């Protein structure tokens, strides 16, 4: 389903703080693991000479007597990879491996990444948390259980680049359609308590038609922020605990200006699981469903 509103590439002038934070976490974690491996090597019964300011490659050579050679490709440049799970991360990894295998600058280096995608569930659960529950076969009779809306801001720029790459556009079917956070025209449909409505479902004049008296007595309240000394986030809605850092990053992820001139928020007509279906169709290797990984031999 297309949209009459043009898709405008607008990204706010914000740095990708989430990516900067993720890189810092990755570096810190690698340094921590490297130091742990060095401490284990020095504390072993084998006499190992560890150079000062050793890197991962140097540590591997110095500890080969203890650890062995590790994983060595059967042929130079030939790498075998098992992707566990056909969620977004697994599907994106498959697309990335395909891109590397076809990259012109890597052809002469004889790089070849052979991979398998192993999914424990059936095809109906393709996409992991990109899960759309269909109540019937009728159009638009579904509910996005996981991700449902996507803001076109600076941090989400690569998400929309992915949409373009897999052919998910306003012109495609299924395609991107506007997601309205505010019912400005008082026309958005709703359905709960077996009552279908359009417009403001909380209007007092609708109260007599509400058999459970939901509109007259109860409202949905925003989640309450409770900052404890260890800076965790608690919510009466059953949301998982989040640190203060995660709350800040989430705000950056989903922040948009209060502008009515730009359509920031988008969703997928047919459900967000269509994203995973298109990613799976784009990958060159088919998914092995109902395949559980019980051990790893590497």
Automatic annotation (TrEMBL):
Annotated source species: Clonostachys rhizophaga
GO MF terms, alphabetically ordered: oxidoreductase activity
UniProt-recorded name of the protein: Amine oxidase domain-containing protein
Superkingdom of this protein's organism: Eukaryota
Domain Amine oxidase per the UniProt entry, residue ranges: 123-170
PANTHER family: FLAVIN MONOAMINE OXIDASE, LYSINE-SPECIFIC HISTONE DEMETHYLASE 2
């Amino acid at each position: 389903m297309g949209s009459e509103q043009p898709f405008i590439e607008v990204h706010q002038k914000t740095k990708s703080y989430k990516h900067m934070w993720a890189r810092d976490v990755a570096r810190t974690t690698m340094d921590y693991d490297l130091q742990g491996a060095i401490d284990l090597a020095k504390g072993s019964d084998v006499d190992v000479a560890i150079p000062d300011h050793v890197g991962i490659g140097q540590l591997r050579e110095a500890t080969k007597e203890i650890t062995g050679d590790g994983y060595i490709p059967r042929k130079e440049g030939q790498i075998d990879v098992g992707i566990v799970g056909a969620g977004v991360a697994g599907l994106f990894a498959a697309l990335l491996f395909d891109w590397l295998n076809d990259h012109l600058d890597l052809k002469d280096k004889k790089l070849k990444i052979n991979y398998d995608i192993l999914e424990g569930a059936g095809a109906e659960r393709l996409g992991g948390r990109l899960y759309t529950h269909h109540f019937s076969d009728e159009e638009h009779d579904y509910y996005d259980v996981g991700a449902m809306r996507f803001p076109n801001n600076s941090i989400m720029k690569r998400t929309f680049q992915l949409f373009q790459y897999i052919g998910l556009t306003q012109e495609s079917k299924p395609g991107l359609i506007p997601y309205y956070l505010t019912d400005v025209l008082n026309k958005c449909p709703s359905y709960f308590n077996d009552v279908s409505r359009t417009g403001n479902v909380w209007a007092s004049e609708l109260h007599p038609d509400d058999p459970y008296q939901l509109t007259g007595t109860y409202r949905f309240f925003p989640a309450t922020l409770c900052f404890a000394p260890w800076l965790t986030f608690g919510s009466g809605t059953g949301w998982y605990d989040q640190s203060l850092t995660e709350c800040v990053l989430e705000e950056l992820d989903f922040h948009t200006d209060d502008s009515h001139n730009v359509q920031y928020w988008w969703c997928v007509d047919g459900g967000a699981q269509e994203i995973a279906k298109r990613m799976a169709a784009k990958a060159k290797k088919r998914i092995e469903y109902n395949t559980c990984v019980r051990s790893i031999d590497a």
